[in-house]
Amino acid sequence: MHAFARCLLAPLLVASGLCFPRPCAAQDKPFTFTSVDLKLLEEADSIDATLEKDGLVYSDTGLTQYLTTVGMAVVGDQPAPEHVTWRFRALRDSIPNAFAPPNGSIYVHSGLLALLENEDQLASVLAHEATHVIAHHGYLSYRSYRKKAAASTIIGSVAVGSSGASGAVASVIAGMTQTILASTVAGYSRELEADADQQGLERMRAARFDVTQMAASFRLLQSTSDLELERVFYNDHPKLAERIEAVIRLAAGAAPAPVEMTSEKARRFAAAVEHPARDSVQQAIDARRYRSAVASARRLVDMNPESTEMRYLLAEAYRALGPRTARPSARELEPSGRKQAYANQFKLTAAEDDKRLLSLPEGQAAWSDNQRESEQQYQKALALDATNFKAYRGLGLLYEKSGRNQDAVAAYRKYLELALDPPDRARIQRHIDAIGQSSTNPGESAHHSDHVER
Amino acid sequence: MRMNWSVFLGVLAFAQAAGASEYMHPSLTSKAVSLQRLGIMPAHIEIAKSGVKGKESMTKESAAVAEEINQLVKKVLSSRGFAVLDDPVRVPEASGSGDAADERRTTVATLQGRFDTLAPQLLSKPKEVTKGRYSLGDEVAGMAAETADGLVFVSGAGVVTTASKAFLMGTRLGSALLCHVIVMDAKTGDILFVAKVDAAPLSRDITVAAADLEKPLAKSFEKLPLGR
User: Fold this and answer.
1) Among A61, A89, A316, B63, which one has the highest count of C-beta atoms within 10 angstroms of its own C-beta?
2) B50 and A175 in contact by Cβ < 8 A?
3) Is residue B125 part of a domain?
4) Could you list the residue range(s) of the whole structural domain that residue B71 is in?
5) Torsion-angle region of B31 (φ positive above 0: left; ψ -120 to 50: alpha; else: beta)
6) pLDDT tens across B65-83, in order?
């Protein structure tokens, strides 16, 4: 998601559950809207508009219809709560996440759609998020956040007074303190999250979904939590293991759905979410989440081993993975390794990080493996469809990066021949020219820029 | 990796201390690259109200200011003699107009996403543009409008401090707005020019404050060489 949209969402996400494995609580007394709640509702509507305007919402009618069908099934036929209009939509973001502002818009990221395996798991996500909306958890959390923030401001004023800081900088720093507070302290309580799981599970049961799949979806999320060494809400979400145990207990006694029905639901789900799932690979590459890109592409290939497009995506993901291993090493997973990785993400550009890793023996070894794997996948894509011109372009970029200049030129030429009039014709021609120039002047690198060919 | 609130506000804090400045890529200073036709990406402005009860996003106001700044950038660039393109991205050929519009939005989102990934490094050390450190990669060549020499990204943050908060914190600051204007080479993806444009404190309400940016913006763009 864009930084802008994410920033706008900050307080709202705190109020809306942020990521799907989140808690919520039953509300027995009727909810009365205050002016603060109505302001939050207004913000939620504005955010819908911003996400739409920024092109982050998939406008694919079939996909939206599918999400709506599953979403409305778990919501049931009861009237929507006051100030809620149910909308179920997919967002272009590779981070596996879902969230629900209090106005009833439920967003599922493409990264999560790529991770889930079937309709029941999707239903568990939507049921959980819908519960946050129905039980007004967003408003309640926002009210709580404001109380905590007010306390922080008073503490902050004392600190500023004593340190002598003044003016804009002090104001901004105090603002940041509150933001941190909002992100880390004022989320839903464990009880609320547990309650959302429980109510979500009941909604699934009522709509005849397989309730055992809620735990399965949590496990999938858990399996990716250590893939990227980044600090995002979902990978340090507390007590996910506890919640898995809790939903297993809640679902105890429920018979898993018959295999035929499960496979039919999985097939239907895969067909509906194929577009965002495919997109999530490139989105992950663009966001420097290379390991997630490989994992997503691998799942797509496992589901469609005969698809030239999926093989191509896997090849692209391995090429982008560069000097990294597909899973973090034990050293990277240590606290010091995580800290270093996080610092590097902020300090270094993607090209600089690649260069740093390539200077290490383990980076060179990983690049050698990934190069081989990428080439194999491009070749498999071409074996399945010899006219898959994008695979030739990928091969060209791979060969050029590996210093196999003649192979690169041949692959680029094949791409230009097959693609007829590609939008990046000039770019590829520049690569060919640069290679030609470097052959004429051997001292010159074929890479006219360190930044090409990601 | 994308920016978050704290990064953005950190940048704002830095800018408040450092003042406005411009940085140029060596290929621009050496005139190896020339810019004449520019596409302007939708500005991304994030305004927050900072009050005693925490920080609240001002989504509607942010969108209005972003639109205002977009128009301002267009005006300033045009007055400098740059040709401003109607659309910064390549308009795809599609079966129906609806599909084309969606593909266009997707391209804009993809380009913006790539920019956001680079932004933490770029905005924390904009001076390194002079060393040619930053690029979005030459894949952008297939996304930018065919005739564009460069794409302009505008990224900004604003804070409106409520009176009660200002009193409690002992600050005089009412509101502040900082923008980074970035010009990217549409062929190579290299970041060619970065300008920090600062308008603090604002003379008017933040929702109409973009006008306060006109002078500093025009001054920054004076240094951007116009190609022939």
Assistant:
1) A316
2) yes
3) yes
4) 5-222
5) left
6) 888 889 999 999 999 999 9
Q: Looking at the domain assignment, is residue B228 inside a domain?
A: no
Domains of chain A, residue spans: 3-250, 260-440
Structure tokens at A237: 């979400």
Residues in chain A, overall count: 454
Residue B227 located in a structural domain: no
Domains: count for chain B: 1
ipTM: 0.84
Interface subset of A 354-413, CB within 8 angstroms of B: none
- B21 located within any domain: yes
Structure tokens at B209: 């404050």
Q: Contact A92/B42, CB-based, under 8 Å?
A: no
CATH of domain A260-440: 1.25.40.10
B44: left (phi over 0), alpha (psi -120 to 50) or beta: beta
Q: What is the DSSP string of B171-195?
A: ----EEEEEEEEEEETTT-BEEEEE
- Count A/B contacts: CB-CB distance under 8 Å: 232
Q: State the number of CA atoms in the 13 A half-sphere of B211 facing the CB.
A: 5
Q: Which residues of chain B have pLDDT under 50?
A: 1-5, 7, 10-11, 14-19, 95-97
DSSP letter for A258, please: P
* C-beta atoms of A149 and B55 within 8 A: yes
A231 touching B, CB under 8 A? no
Contact: A287, B113; criterion CB under 8 Å: yes
Pair A290, A321: CB distance under 8 Å: yes
pTM for the model: 0.84
Of B5, B110, B189, the CB nearest to A179: B5
Total count of residues recorded for chain B: 228
Instruction: Give the residue among A5, A111, A97, A14 at the shortest CA–CA distance from A55.
Output: A5
CB A75 within 8 A of CB A204: no
